[in-house]
Amino acid sequence: MALHANQPRALSFDAVAAQYAATRPDYPPALFDAVEELTGRPLADADVLDCGAGTGIATRLLRERGARVVAMEPGAGMAAELRRAEPEVPLVRGEGNRLPFAAASFDVVTYAQAWHWTDPTLSTPEALRVLRPHGVLALWWNQADIRVPWVAAEEDRLAPFTRDFPTTMAELFTPFPVRVATREITWSRRITVEEHIRNLATHSHFVIMDPAERAELLDANRTALARLFPDGELDEPYRCGLTAVRPITAK
């Protein structure tokens, strides 16, 4: 996986922003429990910068934990969905390689499903710059749990059009004076087969695909899932990987 900014692909989500907001999964409460454990403080009353906030999925959940959130999103379409869903949240257009914020502005910097669109040689020092003493950079991803047989079979059908991002990326931070801790939370949600297909269609590799090829691939997957789940519903399983990065100078 190339861990550097791919701006055209990153901004491809603008074309499917409404569908993204409607079909992408939330994050489980246990994730935010783990964030609080690894940061050593509650999210309530924390100043949080949610980078690559997209349509505001993590932004909303952070606010529900009592955080004061500033959302940052580069894409116009995604930002418009976030503004519609969370009109009270300060929203800044920007990206992680060049954060438009003063030093020591935030207690926590988060990247939910978004760190892989940055260049970590630039985004890491930028995140550390805007963190306050004892601050934490928290990165997380929902990944389909391929230990579940039907998910593994689906991945085989869709490969090589899909790619996963790692649950932990500690090796990326070895050049920096930081401590890294990780957690993994397994969870699932009950949705319809059609909702699952619509969720898949919002992933960037499908968004940028030729429309006819995308339709053919997703239709074949829909047919296979319909045979497995004749009642039209399934449990969509996830492994949510969290990486928390704290400067070594923090006590």
Can you walk through the features of this model?
Mean pLDDT is 91; it is low at 1-5. A 7-stranded mixed β-sheet has the order 3-2-1-4-5-7-6. The protein is built from 10 helices and 7 strands. It has a single domain (7-247), classed as Rossmann fold, CATH 3.40.50.150. Helix 2 (17-23) packs across helix 8 (193-200). It is α/β, with parallel strands linked by helices and 251 residues long. It is 36% helix and 25% strand. 36% of the residues are buried.
Q: How would you summarize the topology of this molecule?
A:
Layout: H1 7-10, H2 17-23, H3 29-39, E1 47-51, H4 57-64, E2 68-72, H5 76-85, E3 91-92, E4 106-112, H6 120-130, E5 131-144, H7 149-158, E6 178-192, H8 193-200, H9 204-207, H10 211-228, E7 233-247
Parallel strand pairs: 1-2, 1-4, 2-3, 4-5
Antiparallel strand pairs: 5-7, 6-7
| CATH homologous superfamily grouping | Vaccinia Virus protein VP39
* Count of alpha and pi helical runs: 10
Strand content: 25-35%
Structural class: alpha/beta
Mean pLDDT: 91
Distance between the termini: 34 Å
Largest sheet: 7 strands, mixed
Question: Count of DSSP E strands?
Answer: 7
Looking at this protein, list some descriptive labels.
Rossmann fold; 251 residues; 25% strand; single chain
